[in-house]
Design brief:
The chain is α/β, with parallel strands linked by helices. 40% of the residues lie in helices and 25% in strands. Myristic acid (MYR) binds next to strand 5, helix 5, strand 8, helix 10 and strand 13.
Length: 281
């Protein structure tokens, strides 16, 4: 049984990691006016932030077309794979997962198991990396899916944005009426619940929001069990690096990564967003 692991670009896994683990990528796109760019392929994250500053209109995003999934799955079948586990950003914020499900029914001779990570970014990347390591070790699709479900039990992610208007404009903020309208300067802590983004706690300053995430992280990190964690930032590499160094000095048993909100997710969270995700490996 040869199993391929696919994930979409919003996992923001560096190319070197994808190549080492054999993870195949399907990109989402950002659209500036008439121009469409597949993130991680046609446009880097630095290019995206530069373009946002000079383009007259704000970008929008789009999921991969079903035909692109069909092409990728067909190519994998031709390469001799029997099964594909296709891991995607939460079905509550994008139709990408559903696209993989639909395409899976259109390719004969290949078992396609679409997996809804119910999250995105490096948290989704953690799922893809574990799945790929297991696939390389010859584990069955069932064993891999069971492990992904287990990861879901311990995975946490909290993030904050500088300007809630981006999430509101894109329609990706649920249950936040109380925060909207005159209160956009508030920096609520956000998280995913039942596949959608909801405000977790109302917090007034970025500093306090960071402190609160640290407290939530400490609840798990202070148990002393090994964790993997990632600081995720939207064009704030220095702040993210400092935060990672502080946390890493406090919790040497935790393996820390730094990751980023790339073009598609940054379109919805805006520059300055910052988050922390972790799970028990
Ligand atoms: C599409 O056009 O299908 C893509 C829509 C992406 C919506 C992104 C909403 C923000 C997600 C924040 C993820 C934070 C993870 C820690």
């Amino acid at each position: 049984m040869k199993t391929a692991i696919v994930t979409d670009s919003t996992a923001y896994l560096p190319k070197e990691v994808r190549e080492r683990l054999g993870i195949r990528l399907i990109p989402l796109s950002v659209i500036f006016g008439e121009e469409t760019y597949r993130e991680e392929i046609d446009m880097t994250t630095d290019e995206f932030f530069a373009k946002v500053k000079q383009h007259p209109t704000l970008p929008t995003t789009s999921q991969p077309a079903v035909g692109e999934f069909v092409d990728l799955f067909t190519a994998l079948r031709e390469e001799g794979y029997d099964a594909v586990i296709s891991i995607h950003l939460s079905s509550g914020i994008s139709g990408t997962y559903q696209g993989a499900v639909t395409a899976g029914t259109m390719v004969d001779g290949l078992r396609v198991l679409a997996y809804d990570s119910e999250i995105s970014c490096m948290a989704q990347g953690f799922y893809a990396m574990e799945a790929a390591e297991m696939a390389q070790a010859g584990r069955t699709p069932e064993e891999i899916i069971a492990r992904l479900d287990e990861i879901k039990q311990t995975l946490r992610a909290y993030f904050m944005v500088d300007d809630l208007a981006h999430l509101q404009r894109g329609g990706r903020l649920t249950g936040a009426q109380a925060f909207i309208g005159g209160l956009l300067q508030i920096k609520p802590l956000l998280r995913f619940e039942n596949k959608v983004i909801v405000p977790f706690e109302k917090i007034r300053t970025r500093k306090k929001a960071v402190k609160r995430i640290e407290e939530l992280f400490a609840e798990d990190a202070e148990k002393g069990i090994p964790l993997k964690a990632a600081v995720i930032h939207a064009n704030q590499p220095d702040e993210a690096g400092r935060w990672r160094d502080e946390l890493s000095a406090r919790y040497p048993h935790v393996e820390f990564f730094i990751s980023y909100f790339g073009p598609v997710i940054a379109t919805h969270v805006g520059e300055g967003a910052l988050g922390l995700t972790w799970y028990q490996p």
